[in-house]
Amino acid sequence: MNRSIDINCDLGESTKPESWARDAEIMPYISSCNIACGGHEGNQASVNASINNALAHNLAIGAHPSYPDKENFGRKSISLGELELIKTLRLQIDLIAESCNQHGAKLFHVKPHGALYNDAALDLSLATTIAEVVAQVSGNIKLMGLADSAMKEAAHKVGIEFINEGFMDRNYRSNKTLVPRTEPEALHSTLEESLQQALKFAQGKPISTPSGQLLSMKVDSICLHGDNPNAVSIAKQLHQSLTDHNIQIRSGM
Questions:
Q1: In angstroms, what is the C-alpha Rg of the chain?
Q2: Which helix (H) or strand (E) holds 64?
Q3: Domain total for the chain?
Q4: Which Pfam families match (predicted)?
Q5: Residue range of the domain that includes 232
Q6: Contact present, 49 and 21 (Cβ < 8 Å)
Q7: In angstroms, what CA-CA distances link 13 with 22, 80, 88?
Q8: How remote is the C-alpha of 23 from its chain's centroid?
Q9: CA-CA distance, 117 to 150, in Å (whole number)?
């Protein structure tokens, strides 16, 4: 049986045209992109450029909303009232959805960014609010989030499809949450370790925690961090590794 896996990357996270050009260099090696929509970064120009580039490479297009916090690049948890959160999420997702419509593209999924992602992975109430906003935009849009997290439960509760995401470069705890970046073992120390973890996700094999415990996780999409200075090189090597093992790289479109 031929296996396949989606590779997604967070893009459009700058208002500088040179960054959009760099994003485009990653696109031949991935199958989905998550476009920043003004919460942590991005504006109409970056959204338009990202959608055009994504269409040229036949990528599944996603919105990448965050807490409204450009000062901290969306990496700080913010306490918002439910109505305020719904308002900012709807504004951000609508920016991508309306831009997709203008370009003849389809908004395929929504993936929260940064602190919003991490908070929603643990908080079912927050995750449910996000899932409900996604469903209000369209019942055909999928929610992407941490595999086997509260976001998965929320998506099922609301009745939208969920994309289980795995991180190639991050270590996991025994409860399937990510080791926080504040801890020394948060990241793999070598690219080879990251590539091996990505391959295991794609093959449906267990991965190891830093303590050696085996974790079995269903992963539909592997995250490639676009803000890594070596992102283009890593994307090429990941693409080559999966291809060498007869694994197709494609989105669920």
A1: 17
A2: strand 60-64
A3: 1
A4: LamB_YcsF
A5: 3-249
A6: no
A7: 11, 23, 17
A8: 15
A9: 10
